[in-house]
Amino acid sequence: MDKNLQEEFTQIIKFQPPLYKQRHQFVKDLVEKYKPKKVADLGCADCSLLWMLKFCSCIEVLAGLDICASVMKEKMHMLSPLPVDYLQPSERSLTVTLHHGSVAHKDPCMLGFDLVTCIELIEHLEESELKKFPEVVFGFMAPSIVVISTPNSEFNPLFSRVMVYRHPDHKFEWSQAQFQSWALETARCYNYSVEFTGVGHPPTGMEKVGFCTQIGVFVRKYPQTGESVQSEKPAEAVYKTVFKAVYPSLKDEKYLQNAVISEVIFTAQIIKHRFMSKRKEYGDDPERKSKFQSSMDCFSNYLEKLVLEKNMEPFVSGNEVHIPLTTIFSFPKVNRLCGTFEKLCKLIAGKVTLSSDGSAVMFNIEHENEEN
Ligand code: SAH
């Protein structure tokens, strides 16, 4: 390396955004590309990557593993659901679990993941742990994708303060050739392909040193392992679960029912309000009523057609206004939440006031009439 250039850069190397953020963004981009449902972060430390990943809507299971329980516990509360998650449960389900244990040991709770991330982990492993690591991750866990990042030692001379390693707990730091030969051998052994990339670009003129953080993305070459293969694997649990959060989800009937009831009442109120104000305007005169029908501008064209063609308009009987359930079911949000008309009827049964034949939501308008 050119000593003059090197000296110039050792003073000014500063990544923007910071390198850890670039690494986490790299994982997030990968998640957005491959859309894994189950993601495990090994050596998750303070759970900051897990926290970022919980917002990726494709993920339904997130797990973290670290050998240091105290560092995981520091900010693990950030992984708990917030009040807004209960007020507006998401359509996807999400479970976040943290385990205390070592990547040198196999535990069945780590089976079935689509993506496993090991960000700045391997350089913290003792020689004996590093030896066991490929068998645990690639042999036992065997996810479709594994991401491993580690410092590139060739970049270190550009940092003025790096004496031996970038962090006192690092057991080694590899050059690009060292990392690539380990990664290629691991990939070959466990039937994965691997591609190399990185984050933290070297300064212009110093491209040869490579990325500050080197990354290997491993993709499994064989199809999903079936139940039969997994059942051969050891069943004893060795990790200790230190945190578990199950997010409220519309996949859970209890939350779905609440959401459907609120949406049905809200939709019925809108229809009723519109109906009552038009009725006040046009009265019950049949000629004027047809004018009302053609001017129901609160509905989309589609819905207006339904109301007219299928006789789904609201009507008044005594002191009650009836809003047909079929009309309510035509509203996209109700429709999407319930899926079928039968499901809608089942979810609101006994929870919303319905007409005696169960075909309409009823509101008493006695007092509204009095006010008029
Ligand atoms: N992945 C984090 C930082 C990792 S630092 C990030 O992206 O910011 C390395 C972490 O690996 C530390 O939290 C350390 O406690 C953990 N670690 C070290 N040896 C381990 C082992 N054998 N098994 C699991 N975690 C380990």
UniProtKB/TrEMBL annotation:
Cellular component GO terms, alphabetical: cytoplasm; nucleus
Reaction equation(s) it catalyzes: small RNA 3'-end nucleotide + S-adenosyl-L-methionine = small RNA 3'-end 2'-O-methylnucleotide + S-adenosyl-L-homocysteine + H(+)
Cofactor needs: Mg(2+)
Coiled-coil regions listed: none
Single Gene Ontology BP annotation: piRNA processing
EC number: 2.1.1.386
Enzyme class, UniProt record, top EC level: transferase
GO molecular function: metal ion binding; RNA binding; small RNA 2'-O-methyltransferase activity
Gene3D superfamilies (UniProt xref): Vaccinia Virus protein VP39
Sorted UniProt keywords: Magnesium, Metal-binding, Methyltransferase, RNA-binding, RNA-mediated gene silencing, S-adenosyl-L-methionine, Transferase
Family affiliation: Belongs to the methyltransferase superfamily. HEN1 family.
PANTHER family, per database record: HEN1, SMALL RNA 2'-O-METHYLTRANSFERASE
Protein name: Small RNA 2'-O-methyltransferase
